[in-house]
Amino acid sequence: MGMFELLAIIALIALAVGNLFVGVTNDAVNFLNSAVATKAASRKTILIVSSIGVLIGATFSDGIIEVARKGIFHPTFFTAQEAILVFTAVALADIILLDLYSTFGLPTSTTVSIVFELFGAALVMAFWKVGTLNGAWEAINSSSAMKIILGILISVGVAFLIGLVVQFLSRLIFTFDYKQRLQKYGFLWCGAALTSLMFFLLLKGSKHAAFMTDTLKDWISANTLTVLGVSFVAFSLLSYVLIRSKVNILKIIILIGTGSLALAFAGNDLANFIGVSVGGVHAYLGSDLADKLPTPTWVLAGAGTVMMFAIFTSKKANTVLNTSINLASHEKDAVRDWGANSFSRKLTRIVTFLFELVLAVIPQKIQDWMAHRWDHQPDQEEKTAFDLMRASVNLMVAAAVISYATSHKLPLSTTYVAFMVAMGTSLADGAWDRDCAPSRITGVLTVISGWFMTAFFALLMAGVTVSVLYWANIYGLVGMCLLVVFLVYKLAHVHDKRDQKKKANGAKSW
What we know:
Layout: H1 3-27, H2 29-38, H3 43-59, E1 64-66, H4 80-103, H5 110-130, H6 133-137, H7 142-174, H8 179-205, H9 214-222, H10 224-244, H11 249-284, E2 292-294, H12 297-313, H13 315-328, H14 342-360, H15 364-373, H16 388-407, H17 414-428, H18 437-504
Antiparallel strand pairs: 1-2
Helix pairs in contact: 1-4, 1-11, 1-12, 1-13, 1-18, 2-3, 2-11, 2-13, 2-16, 3-11, 3-12, 4-5, 4-11, 4-18, 5-18, 7-16, 7-17, 8-10, 8-11, 8-16, 11-16, 13-17, 13-18, 14-18, 16-17
């Protein structure tokens, strides 16, 4: 190993800290959305709960890092020096990409970004090595990449539809004036919500925990229905007692869901932030990159601490959070910044026409009864984006979808699922009326198009970066590190200016 490799390892360690910070900045929306939007607790309490979940999830992870993330490329194709170059290029590209998205308040998937960065860097590196595209393609596991893309696309549609249906049924049963009905039969609903969160915590949140042995995982898989049934009965009884004791059970569900999602995020997405750095260090030490590589507990605890710090201090995290909450909010003014275009207006008219066709075959009495279930007066004192019932559905459905996919080893993005569930529940709740629907559609399509661009930008940026490192060697490394510092600095200024402009225009901030 030469001077370039040593400097690359030093850069990878520094970049790991940066990736942890920008990664949490964008992904925090996954677990903070519902609690912040409903003010289920004070902002400080919500951040403390999520931070504890993040620290536990990171520290008590088994510390196993998959270098060839999801089998995107074959590590045996590269020498240790070449692998270090690939990992360094990925780390550099990742910081730029995630910070760019966070600056403009667009939630994206850290999993998708790291997967396609590895794909692009490995493919281009292999091309420079062998000189032909066909030869370079041998380093790539293309079937794995296609499986991930297909799984994520399906999960986006499924999450939206399930969120819409569950929220529609929940509102039909409990209405917006849900407190009295919750006292009567809400314990069953709360039991189902807590069961969903508990099963999510077992399957997703604790998947990488040291105590989750293969034997225990196999037992849970073989006795899934029994575990769900016993949990539902136990949580329903607990909910009955709490509701009768005048405890606001929905706030408890939201805080438990926030902590659970934060724990799962830290335990599962940690590889997205420090995986390439850990892989680079192991390559430098001569480890077999085809194996799962252990990470010391003190490194995991340090990573968790950095993520906690980012949650409390990142201004961009709040910007990304505002995007998600505003698009789901009942307030019409919350989406005015997105504007509306001819496509969104035409789509609104088409959907409205189809909806009216469906209403035409439903008796008027049933229409009137259903419309009455959606009558509500927003609580002006609380000034929340939506109520506790919808926030609970958001967390419950997101947990259920992710748990199901995990149990069946289906790839998905937690960011995409959480966002689309929130959009589905907002539609079912009547937030998308004729006046603001075009703006909401514009906003949602902007975010979704950004997801597709994530894969393209990740592949392109990593490919360019690895080329610079390959041809310019140590000069390229120093130049790219300086470029990253400069871009992060400039993007911080861009974000501050955008934030000040939005505040001056009266934009809604949560």
